[in-house]
Design goal:
Belongs to the cytidine and deoxycytidylate deaminase family. ADAT2 subfamily. GO terms for molecular function: tRNA-specific adenosine-34 deaminase activity. This is tRNA-specific adenosine deaminase. Its cofactor is Zn(2+). By secondary structure, the chain is an alpha/beta fold. It contains 5 helices and 5 strands, in the order αββααβαββα. A 5-stranded mixed sheet has the order 2-1-3-4-5. β3, α4 and β4 form a beta-alpha-beta unit. It is globular.
């Protein structure tokens, strides 16, 4: 499967978050060409501020692989990760990160912070951004417009 195929899957997960009243972000972790874990935003539903899509997927993957080091994996997520998620991604030793929409205000890969290049981290995550960006961004924009009662 291509990055776009996997991102399409992540978009379906983001829609699940939206159906549950959560900010629509979806993530999945791929290892050896198969999806081993999925996640979508769940902080409201679970009363857990760390239940971002990325962290949910990383936790599940750790259980499946029986290791907190997620070597040779690729994480697909519909939005550029925040600082918390980027820290978890680096700590888990995810090899590659692919995200959809850029987040200029809070993104910690290449915008508000550039943690992908931070010299104090002992792991570098390869990354690609903008995969299916229009679809990923539109899902978020429409969600927040509806939340604010704007057309």
């Amino acid at each position: 499967m291509t990055d776009a195929d996997w991102m399409q899957h992540a978009l379906r997960l983001a829609q699940r978050a939206e159906q549950q009243g959560e900010v629509p972000v979806g993530a999945l972790l791929v290892h050896e060409e198969r999806c081993i874990a999925e996640g979508w935003n769940q902080p409201i539903q679970t009363n857990d501020p760390t239940a971002h899509a990325e962290v949910v997927a990383l936790r599940k993957a750790g259980q499946i692989l029986q290791n907190y080091r997620l070597i040779d994996t690729t994480l697909y997520v519909t939005l550029e990760p925040c600082v918390m998620c980027m820290g978890a991604i680096a700590h888990a030793r995810v090899k590659r990160l692919v995200f959809g929409a850029f987040d200029p205000k809070r993104g910690a890969v290449c915008h508000a912070l550039q943690l992908s290049d931070a010299p104090f981290l002992n792991h570098r995550v390869e990354w690609s951004g903008g995969v299916l960006e229009p679809s990923c961004a539109e899902l978020l924009t429409d969600f927040f417009k509806a939340r604010r009662g704007r057309p």
